[in-house]
């Protein structure tokens, strides 16, 4: 299994004989307006793609945790081939159909795709009323013969849903969306370093990868801050915080 972080939540996963593009945000740097009511006013994305656009066409399918613009932007909708299989949460099916994608597979619970099983999990994109305003988000458990069990948590904080997913599926590897994304009011809407540490403590033998960092203006926690927090807790050997363009093999 190989995971290549492109930028933010955009990754390319090689798993079960498939190459899967996850949460594609393909706009050039500074092409999108900043997130409103957030701690800084820089245009998004904050950094350029570390690869050429052509790399995104050499994939077998697309997996979306949700369709907020930092996970599926207008550029991805424009550039990706409309015949490519797209797997998503049920709430996003109509939007993708309206954009012209011909093979959209909403996952209510789980789906089998040519030997690869994808199971949807839930999360909370923030707390209280803020989470309701942010709308539904999903994570996914991926499993295939001779592969480790993999958990993409999606845009969620530590919550009961994450705790339940870890208990039920016992993943070998978890990919967490960090950055402590937030607005001027309300708490974080993605994982903080403290949330990452709670995930690590839940399954001590699990490997963890933290993405969703330093690429969108409402993400305030840096790679260095997360690494320091992990080091303080003695967790550096089981957690990876990759740079953009970095390939991890497990």
Automatic annotation (TrEMBL):
<protein>
    <submittedName>
        <fullName>MBL fold metallo-hydrolase</fullName>
    </submittedName>
</protein>
<dbReference type="InterPro" id="IPR036866">
    <property type="entry name" value="RibonucZ/Hydroxyglut_hydro"/>
</dbReference>
<dbReference type="InterPro" id="IPR050114">
    <property type="entry name" value="UPF0173_UPF0282_UlaG_hydrolase"/>
</dbReference>
<feature type="domain" description="Metallo-beta-lactamase">
    <location>
        <begin position="19"/>
        <end position="212"/>
    </location>
</feature>
<dbReference type="InterPro" id="IPR001279">
    <property type="entry name" value="Metallo-B-lactamas"/>
</dbReference>
<dbReference type="Pfam" id="PF12706">
    <property type="entry name" value="Lactamase_B_2"/>
</dbReference>
<keyword id="KW-0378">Hydrolase</keyword>
């Amino acid at each position: 299994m190989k995971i290549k972080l492109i930028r933010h939540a955009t990754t390319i996963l090689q798993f079960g004989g498939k190459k899967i593009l996850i949460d594609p945000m393909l706009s050039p740097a500074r092409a999108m307006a900043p997130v409103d009511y957030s701690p800084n006013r820089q245009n998004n994305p904050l950094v350029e793609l570390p690869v050429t656009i052509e790399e995104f066409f050499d994939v077998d399918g697309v997996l979306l945790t949700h369709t907020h613009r930092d996970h599926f932007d207008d550029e991805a909708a424009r550039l990706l081939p409309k015949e490519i299989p797209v797997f998503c949460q049920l709430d996003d099916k109509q939007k993708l159909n309206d954009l012209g994608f011909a093979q959209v597979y909403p996952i209510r619970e789980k789906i089998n795709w040519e030997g690869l099983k994808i199971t949807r999990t839930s999360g909370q994109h923030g707390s209280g009323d803020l989470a309701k305003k942010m709308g539904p988000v999903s994570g996914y458990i991926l499993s295939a013969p001779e592969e480790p069990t993999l958990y993409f948590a999606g845009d969620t904080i530590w919550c009961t849903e994450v705790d339940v997913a870890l208990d039920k599926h016992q993943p070998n590897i978890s990919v967490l969306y960090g950055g402590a994304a937030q607005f001027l009011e309300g708490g974080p809407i993605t994982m903080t370093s403290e949330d990452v540490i709670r995930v690590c403590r839940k399954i001590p033998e699990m490997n963890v990868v933290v993405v969703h960092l330093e690429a969108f203006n409402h993400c305030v926690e840096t790679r260095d801050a997360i690494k320091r927090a992990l080091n303080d807790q003695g967790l550096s050997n089981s957690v990876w915080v990759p740079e953009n363009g970095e390939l991890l093999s497990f």
